[in-house]
């Protein structure tokens, strides 16, 4: 288990509060850690992964205010410096990703290109 000295992503206070709520209340999240990553697909070529998962060999581990997080080291280049925010309003509800590495993003807000 490798710990990261510098955090690859940051979370706003609202995102941390929502993730801690999910970790405490969602049965599928019990005993798992937050995985932050990317995968191929989406409108612009890549989509964000933000899910509760079991650690895998080679994962890097980091902690944000008591929230255990995982990242595949090969995903760091796409995510470094990204801020994750939670919008809890009636008109726009969900996690948003502010990624300085994205050359373009899609209107859906979860797809990007590098």
TrEMBL record:
<dbReference type="InterPro" id="IPR016092">
    <property type="entry name" value="ATAP"/>
</dbReference>
<dbReference type="InterPro" id="IPR031108">
    <property type="entry name" value="IscA_plant_cyanobact"/>
</dbReference>
<dbReference type="Pfam" id="PF01521">
    <property type="entry name" value="Fe-S_biosyn"/>
</dbReference>
<dbReference type="InterPro" id="IPR035903">
    <property type="entry name" value="HesB-like_dom_sf"/>
</dbReference>
<feature type="domain" description="Core">
    <location>
        <begin position="9"/>
        <end position="109"/>
    </location>
</feature>
<protein>
    <submittedName>
        <fullName>Iron-sulfur cluster assembly accessory protein</fullName>
    </submittedName>
</protein>
<dbReference type="GO" id="GO:0016226">
    <property type="term" value="P:iron-sulfur cluster assembly"/>
</dbReference>
<dbReference type="GO" id="GO:0051537">
    <property type="term" value="F:2 iron, 2 sulfur cluster binding"/>
</dbReference>
<dbReference type="InterPro" id="IPR017870">
    <property type="entry name" value="FeS_cluster_insertion_CS"/>
</dbReference>
<dbReference type="InterPro" id="IPR000361">
    <property type="entry name" value="ATAP_core_dom"/>
</dbReference>
